[in-house]
Here is the input.
Amino acid sequence: MAKTVYIAGLGLIGASMALGIKRDHPDYKILGYNRSQASRQIALERGIVDRVTDDFASFAPLADIIILSLPIKQTIAFIKELANLDLKEGVIISDAGSTKSAIVDAAEQYLAGKSVRFVGAHPMAGSHKTGAASADVNLFENAYYIFTPSNLTTLDTLDEMKDLLSGLHARFIEIDAKEHDRVTSQISHFPHILASSLMEQTAVYAQEHEMARRFAAGGFRDMTRIAESEPGMWTSILLSNRETILDRIENFKERLDEISQAISQGDEDHIWNFFNQAREQRQAMEIHKRGGVDSSYDLFVDVPDEEDVILRILELLRGTSLVNIHINEENREDVHGILQISFKNAQDLERAQQVITQHTDYTVVIK
Here is the structure.
């Protein structure tokens, strides 16, 4: 039976979600809300949604499933608004927020006693691109799509959501909302604080030591890439997960103090173990299994500085889907090859390694 799905927020996540739903359920009607006219127009013209509105309340009563793909504060405000609307009996309401406790708590508070089902959700996928114009049906492929059930989540809610979102080709997983926020504070939220702090420190330092700007490559580039993230979103995330993030900051201060003391005392064994344990722990971590956020498969090729060499490599990879290409042309102290090529999946990575190795004598490294 065809359903009506209402997606509030036609940015990258919401619009890409609509495309994924349409891939497996072309008969479903998808309604969209967005404040900006530009995204509404793009979503309508490209067939991402069937109808659009800038009045959130107007489409809500028509929907079998409502997905709030909005900033955290607006998500909570719309949950409160939904509590006062005449919705379909048994409607499923979900969201796409990066923190879950505040949203799940709001749903359980405002929607209590209503004939609705609510399940929190966090699709762990993204891009440096934004807006409906950047919608990508493959955005969620192999990424975790996390569900955080509430006391308004019935046994059949998750089955219906997984069926609805089957065309996203994501990896569905369930976790308690508070545990979600603890985990993401460590592996997502706190790293953004570190990246931005390192950028701020380096910018100030470079005012007196200008060469710091020129030598900043390799590890520095990789560690600070996420410092370019959208500040409004990250302000909202930090303020909606304060206690857990503050705990991670204090814990990290203690770790910095510990290695600082070892350096001050010239404790060679402690310093060696500090780096060795980190190396072993990273090698054992799931990060190498390509299952998490923003997974990409990276190939590094040492190529000579010759005319058309990059074009030759790309010609060999004709027909292979590339995510990104980066040329490490300057400081190469800690990079694995001058040409870095990122792929969407392991099959394309392996094929590229084979093709380049067979047709060139360049060194190829997978990391």
Observations:
- Residues 290-294, 331-336 have pLDDT under 50 and may be disordered.
- The two ends are 46 Å apart (CA to CA).
- The CA atoms of residues 162 and 172 lie 7 Å apart.
- The first helix runs from residue 12 to 24.
